[in-house]
Design goal:
The complex is a heterodimer of chains A (about 250) and B (about 230). Chain A is an alpha+beta fold. Chain A is elongated. Chain A has one domain. Chain A contains eleven helices and five strands. In chain A, about 60% of the residues lie in helices and about 15% in strands. Chain B is an all-alpha fold and about 230 residues long. In chain B, about 80% of the residues lie in helices and about 0% in strands. Chain B contains twelve helices and no strands. The chains are: A alpha+beta (about 250), B mainly alpha (about 230).
């Protein structure tokens, strides 16, 4: 004869009867305020759905319109300054269009990195929503102002002469970037310098030292800069990173 | 089958004959309703709030009882139940009907309970100790003599509830998942994160303990009755 355990199985009559006895004994708890609160929470979520869908639709339409406009601008201003040339307004405009054509991926990354919580970061809908609305937000904040590339040769020197106020703020931003946690930089810049459309993202496919692409909007002017992060703080690379990016890799 | 089991079974069979399941449990058992649960979740994902209300109506009581039986204190149980349903609401978009809805729902409930137990470390260690295997022969021998005229149905039911409360929590969880959600062995294993063999073992021990405790209760009732003048 086996042990009692050998005789008991999930389909055993004992198990079934014990379960039936349990079910016959228990009673349904009465409805209370907590139930009502849950129902309300569930209903609120369904109410948000049509609004979210409408927002996606509007954002997609606007995105297409702005994308078309950016394409037209890049066709108009396609010239970049050469390495020895002092940046002019026209050349800055050219950088602006280039910045806009590459902006979408940055916005996607920005949406992930600057979102509020881990749960939100995993939420595909949130990502779609944020990435779709980010270009719109940028244009609403900065208007259609030119984006000044601070990595362009002579750009900082020119800025120091033409806009000393912005120059001081930018220097403080660059100096303070490494003193804040990576995910907190954008918030810090927005809060301290009243900058709009702040994006601080890693520049992918770079080796040591690490680099970050920082862009922000001061009043009506957009700035972008690629920073090299060192142990002594961040520094603006004096070279033209576009030129470096096209340089073929050399095997050592 | 030993004397304990054979003498308890007639009494238990009275319960199964005279106590039909509640309406909601009847609904959860049929395969058509299982599909319907998934359809309800899909409808809710599409924005139909009434679908969630229907799901909630079906499973609120089983979930609440399951959590309350494995929790210390009604307030904490209420809080965990709220968290479970909010997790369902938030996870609607990521819900994939890979398993039955009940498995999904009670998995969430069990995970929340595990968090609850973990947050109370000392008691959780007591939980783990309580899962150690008892001597089943000893359990069975303890109630070897059960009177044939044992207990009216109400008394048996209250004894059964008390016996369930005395089960070690891991065994109690397995038994309740079977009794409340009617999950299969594999589904219980998936919901609790244990192996199928461990789950089966826990169920065996739970049933053995319940039988033994019911037998002891029967002996005590019989003594009282015969000692009365």
């Amino acid at each position: 004869m086996g042990t009692p355990a050998d005789e008991i199985d999930m389909n055993d009559h004992d198990t079934e009867r014990l379960c039936a006895g349990y079910r016959a004994t228990v009673q349904d708890p009465p409805y209370d305020a907590a139930d009502a609160a849950l129902m309300r929470a569930a209903t609120r979520r369904t109410r948000r759905l049509p609004m979210r869908r409408m927002a996606y639709g509007v954002a997609a339409t606007l995105l297409a319109a702005f994308g078309l406009a950016a394409g037209m601008r890049s066709l108009t201003f396609s010239r970049r300054p050469s390495s020895g040339e002092t940046p002019t307004a026209a050349s800055q405009e050219g950088h602006a269009s280039q910045g806009r054509t590459t902006a979408f991926n940055d916005y996607l990354t920005d949406a992930v990195l600057s979102s509020a919580s881990t749960e939100h970061r995993r939420d595909t809908g949130f990502l779609q929503e944020t990435s779709a609305l980010s270009p719109l937000r940028a244009d609403l904040t900065c208007g259609t102002a030119a984006e000044i590339d601070l990595n362009a040769p002579g750009a900082l020197a020119s800025l120091k002469v033409r806009r000393p106020g912005d120059y001081v703020r930018i220097m403080r931003i660059i100096a303070g970037v490494t003193r804040h946690p990576e995910l907190d930089v954008a918030r810090w810049i927005s809060a301290t310098f009243h900058a709009g459309n702040v994006s601080y993202v890693p520049l992918w496919l770079t080796s040591l030292p690490p680099q970050r692409r920082l862009s922000f909007c001061l009043e009506s002017t957009s700035y972008s800069v690629v920073l090299t992060i060192t142990s002594n703080g961040a520094r603006v690379s004096p070279t033209d990173y576009y030129k470096n990016a096209r340089r073929p890799l050399r095997m050592r | 089958m030993d004397a304990t089991a054979s003498s308890i079974l007639p009494e238990l069979s009275k319960i199964s004959l005279h106590a039909p399941r509640s309406a909601q449990m009847e609904e959860t058992r049929t395969p058509e309703t299982t599909e319907s649960d998934q359809k309800l979740m899909e409808r809710y994902r599409a924005g139909d709030a009434t679908a969630f209300n229907e799901l909630y109506r079906r499973y609120r009581a089983p979930v609440r009882r399951f959590v309350a039986k494995l929790c210390w204190g009604q307030d904490e149980a209420d809080e965990i139940v709220q968290e479970v349903w909010l997790a369902v609401i938030r996870g609607t978009r990521s819900y994939r009907p890979a398993a039955r809805f009940t498995t999904y729902l009670f998995s969430i409930a069990h995970r929340r309970l595990q968090d609850h137990w973990r947050s109370r470390g000392r008691r959780a260690r007591a939980f783990a100790a309580a899962d150690s295997a008892p001597d089943l022969h000893e359990i069975a021998d303890a109630g070897a003599t059960v009177p044939e005229d044992w207990a009216a149905s109400a008394e048996l039911r209250s004894a059964l509830m008390a016996a369930i409360d005395r089960l070690p929590p891991p065994q109690r969880a397995v038994f309740l998942l079977k009794a409340e959600a009617d999950l299969s062995l594999e589904e219980i294993a998936a919901a609790t994160g244990a192996s199928v063999e461990a789950t089966k073992s826990r169920m065996r021990y739970a049933v053995a303990r319940l039988r033994a405790q019911l037998a002891r209760h029967g002996n005590a009732g019989r003594r009282d009755r015969y000692e009365r003048p």
